[in-house]
């Protein structure tokens, strides 16, 4: 009896091995994710997420496939296309399904429906970036922001509630040389569902120069003065103290300091001189004296 059971067991094992080695067609399903489209500008309205398959494989491979979870099939959507042929995915499917010798499907293509999001373009503001410079150094010109604008994509309702886009609050201290800083944008869009930005950071270029302090003697002029009267100003010249970039020291800057004739007619005893014009390459600091007197001679 014992020998009979051993022989029976061996016979079953042989039969099972032969049966498992035989190739058959098995139904399977694989999860699908569509990729390759511009997720910032477009949203998926509808897409195939499951691909039914008929695969030819032996029993051993079928058993292994049944006990392990199949990887997701990532499908690259061609540019300006809304469908991908299943036949073109044969290579991917054979690598995905272990042990298969043949793969087919009851559908001929995987399809996706995309909808273009609404968009709005914003000028990027840098008000919350605090720049401070080392002694005798300063900004030479204007900062350059790249890109200067950001486009947000999303629903019209959400975009209407976003008024501005700013660079995140940042402190940059002790600057002594021209440099480019990569700074993040404050993600105001995150408080709204499914709003995407064209970029999440910007580059800010700061042109920086070393400055020296110089004094310039400038005559004071009277705005809208009556040509029929004589005016005497005390003093008639003032000193404009300004910072000048070292590279511009060879220039002779032109300043205009004025007082208003209307203030003189009102009998103002003390007039405050105003710096009306100055070159862009200088940084005025103070005018001395800060008050002058005027005498009107009829």
Short summary:
The chain is α+β, with helices and mostly antiparallel strands. The protein is 15% helix and 48% strand.
Topology of this structure?
Elements (H helix, E strand, L loop, with lengths): L1 H20 L1 E13 L6 E6 L2 E9 H9 L5 E4 L6 E3 L4 H7 L5 E3 L4 E8 L1 E8 L3 E5 L3 E3 L4 E3 L2 E6 L1 H5 L4 E2 L3 E6 L3 E6 L11 E2 L3 E6 L1 E16 L6 E5 L2 E9 L10 E5 H5 L8 E4 L4 E7 L4 E5 L1
Parallel strand pairs: 1-4, 8-13, 9-14, 18-21
Antiparallel strand pairs: 1-3, 2-7, 3-6, 5-7, 8-12, 10-18, 11-17, 12-16, 15-17, 18-20, 19-24, 20-23, 21-22
Poorly predicted residue ranges = 4-21
User: Structural class, please?
Assistant: alpha+beta
Strand content: over 45%
Radius of gyration: 39 Å
Helix coverage percent: 10-25%
Number of helices: 5
Order of helices and strands: HEEEHEEHEEEEEEEHEEEEEEEEEHEEE
Q: How far is the first residue's CA from the last residue's CA?
A: 145 Å
| Overall shape | rod-shaped
Major pleated sheet: 6 strands, mixed
Mean pLDDT: 82
User: Total number of β-strand segments?
Assistant: 24
Task: List descriptors.
single chain, 298 residues, alpha+beta, 6-stranded mixed beta sheet, 4-stranded mixed beta sheet, 5 helices, 48% strand, rod-shaped
Q: Can you characterise this structure?
A:
15% of the residues lie in helices and 48% in strands. The N and C termini lie far apart (145 Å). With 298 residues, it is of the alpha+beta class. The chain contains 5 helices and 24 strands. The model is unreliable at 4-21 (pLDDT under 50).
């Amino acid at each position: 009896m014992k020998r009979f059971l051993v022989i029976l067991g061996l016979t079953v094992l042989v039969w099972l091995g032969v049966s498992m080695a035989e190739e058959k067609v098995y139904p399977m399903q694989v999860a699908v994710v569509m990729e390759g489209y511009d997720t910032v500008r477009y949203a998926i309205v509808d897409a195939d997420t499951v691909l039914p398959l008929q695969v030819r494989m032996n029993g051993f491979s079928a058993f292994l496939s049944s006990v392990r979870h199949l990887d997701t099939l990532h499908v690259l959507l061609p540019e300006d296309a809304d469908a991908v042929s299943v036949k073109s995915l044969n290579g991917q499917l054979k690598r995905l399904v272990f042990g298969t010798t043949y793969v087919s499907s009851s559908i001929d293509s995987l399809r996706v429906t995309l909808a273009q999001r609404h968009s709005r373009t914003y000028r990027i503001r840098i008000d919350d970036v605090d720049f401070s410079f080392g002694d005798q150094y300063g900004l030479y010109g204007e900062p350059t922001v790249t890109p200067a604008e950001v486009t947000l994509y999303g629903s019209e309702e959400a975009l209407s509630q976003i008024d501005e886009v700013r660079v995140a609050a940042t402190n940059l201290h002790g600057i002594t040389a021209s440099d480019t800083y990569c700074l993040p944008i404050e993600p105001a869009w995150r408080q709204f569902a499914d709003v995407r930005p064209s970029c999440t950071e910007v580059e800010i270029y700061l042109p920086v120069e070393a400055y020296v302090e110089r004094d310039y003697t400038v005559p004071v002029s009277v705005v809208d003065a009556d040509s029929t009267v004589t005016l005497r100003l005390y003093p008639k010249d003032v000193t404009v103290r300004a910072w000048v970039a070292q590279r511009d020291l060879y220039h002779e800057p032109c300043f205009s300091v004025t007082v208003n004739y209307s203030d003189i007619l009102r009998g103002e005893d003390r007039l405050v001189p105003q710096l009306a014009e100055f070159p862009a390459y200088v940084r005025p600091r103070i005018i001395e004296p800060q008050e002058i007197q005027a005498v009107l001679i009829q």
